[in-house]
Design a protein that fits this description.
Blueprint lengths: L3 E6 L4 E6 L12 H12 L5 E4 L2 E8 L2 E7 L5 H19 L4 H5 L2 H11 E2 L2 E2 L4 H4 L37 E14 L5 E15 L5 E6 L2 H7 L11 E5 L5 H7 L2 E3 L4 E10 L7 E10 L2 E10 L6 E10 L5 E7 L3 E5 L4 E10 L3 E9 L14 E8 L8 E7 L7 E15 L16
Parallel strand pairs: 8-23
Antiparallel strand pairs: 1-2, 1-5, 3-4, 4-5, 6-7, 8-9, 9-13, 10-12, 10-22, 11-13, 14-15, 15-20, 16-19, 16-21, 17-20, 18-19, 21-23
Length: 435
């Protein structure tokens, strides 16, 4: 349970505060930035949970503001951090952008939201579509103020009664992000898959959905034999609508969904995978210039295509006079990032592409730096999952018995995807042809 919640600017000055329990002095927030800066100086980073003088500070930074919760209790930190994340999402849904200006322009409605979303330090309603039914940005005559919807006091607090659609549809996206670090020889140093199942639900009434995945543990629990590949998911986290008791007993994902867009679940797979897009790089450093040759390889099956590929190659801060030549896509210099970006709109699996870059360097400059930043890659591959996860079925049951159309889509994209580069070759070690 949280004792108080604060919205701070980047300097740590409170913009809005709400005291829920009265057991923590509101002046304690004055120490937050000092404690945070001290931790960053000592450890080089900051943690979302900090304890000082018996008070625990739980914080989340979004854009140019901090959302901070204070407590003296031994609480479940993840519950409060998730509440702060939900609070951030609700503010974004209401005000379009979450920043200091939007906070200052919406004091009244923010206080209303803080009162409804938490009661005596306990999280309550955090679904935007329910909150918007009775907390609006419009004025109301005193005698006819809107009443809270029945969903607020129902067991299903995330969905209202009486929802109707002419066409009943469900859109389900399985999105996997690849976090990867690869050394200059192509050896994978670390890799993991972060997956999420996102849904857009446009269904009438109060439907119950059942989702079946090729879950390895489910097949082992029920003693059934899978027809294809199975996936063992780790660190699974569900939306509150999922019946956890049902999942724990037989791994069935059963739920009454919120209306509209939401994230049903996310998971992690700590598995060794090969780079989907690999870059061979040759860098030559000469007096007065530096040259790059980057060969990109799409190391996935030819029936798939990576869209909007961006390969960011770091260059010296004092580089100038860029020249490029590509076999696919286009390249341009981004001086504010000390890098050049190679963009490929569509990169088919099994294909290769090449970029050559030439930069001028000052005639008098410091020695070559010992550390060379890695290449980072952005991409999105539709109709493809690295883990092999599959939606086996999506059943929709509603008492009126209408027919609904489920649509399933798979997407793999980059997360923190970095490829280390070899050090530049000395003059005379190799000779790249001129551009």
């Amino acid at each position: 349970m949280a004792s108080a919640v604060f919205v701070l600017d980047l300097k740590g000055k409170p913009l809005i505060a709400r005291d829920y329990r009265g057991d923590v002095p509101m002046s304690a927030i004055d120490n937050f930035m000092t404690i945070l800066q001290k931790q960053e100086e000592e450890k080089g980073t900051s943690t979302p949970v900090i304890t000082q003088d018996g008070i625990t500070y739980l914080h989340l930074r979004q854009s140019d503001i901090f959302l901070v919760a204070l407590t003296r209790k031994n609480i479940n930190a993840m519950t409060i951090l998730q509440f702060l994340q939900n609070l951030s999402q609700v503010f974004t849904d209401y005000f379009k952008t979450l920043e200091e200006e939007s906070i200052r322009d919406n004091f009244v409605i923010i206080y209303e939201l803080l009162d409804e979303m938490m009661d005596y330090g306990f999280p309550q309603i955090t679904e935007t579509n329910i909150l918007k039914e009775y907390i609006t940005q419009e004025s109301h005559v005193l005698e006819i103020q809107p009443r809270p919807p029945t969903a607020v006091t129902d067991a299903v607090s995330w969905r209202s009664d009486g929802i109707e659609y002419r066409k009943n549809e469900v859109f389900l996206d399985v999105v996997e992000s690849i976090n990867m670090m690869v050394n200059s020889k192509g050896n994978v140093l670390s890799s993991e898959i972060l997956g999420a199942v996102k849904m857009k639900v446009y269904l009438s009434g109060m439907p119950e959905l059942r989702l079946g995945l090729n879950d390895k543990v489910m097949f082992e629990t029920t003693g059934r034999t899978p027809k294809g590949k199975t996936v063992e998911m780790e660190d699974i986290r569900f939306h509150q609508c999922v019946r956890l008791s049902k999942f724990e007993s037989d791994r069935t994902i059963s739920f009454i969904p919120p209306d509209g867009e939401f994230e049903l679940m996310n998971y992690r797979l700590n598995t060794q995978i090969k780079p989907l897009i690999w870059c061979d790089s040759v860098i030559e450093s000469h007096k007065g210039r530096i040259e790059y040759m980057i060969k990109a390889k799409a190391q996935f099956k030819s029936r798939s295509t990576a869209n909007d590929v961006e390969i960011l190659v770091p260059v010296p801060e004092d580089a100038d006079c860029p020249r490029f030549k590509t076999t696919l896509g286009s390249a341009h210099y981004v001086p504010e990032k000390s890098a050049f970006v190679w963009k490929i709109r569509q990169f088919q699996g099994g294909k290769e592409a090449l970029v050559r870059a030439h930069f001028g360097l000052p005639s008098i400059r410091e020695e070559e730096p010992e550390k060379h930043p890695p290449i980072s890659v952005k991409f999105e591959i539709p109709y493809f999952t690295t883990s092999g996860i599959q939606v086996r079925y999506l059943k929709i049951v509603e008492k009126s018995g209408y027919q609904a159309l489920p649509w399933v889509r798979y997407i793999t994209k980059n997360g923190d995807y970095q490829l280390r580069v070899p050090p530049p070759l000395k003059p005379g070690s190799s000779r790249l042809p001129p551009i």
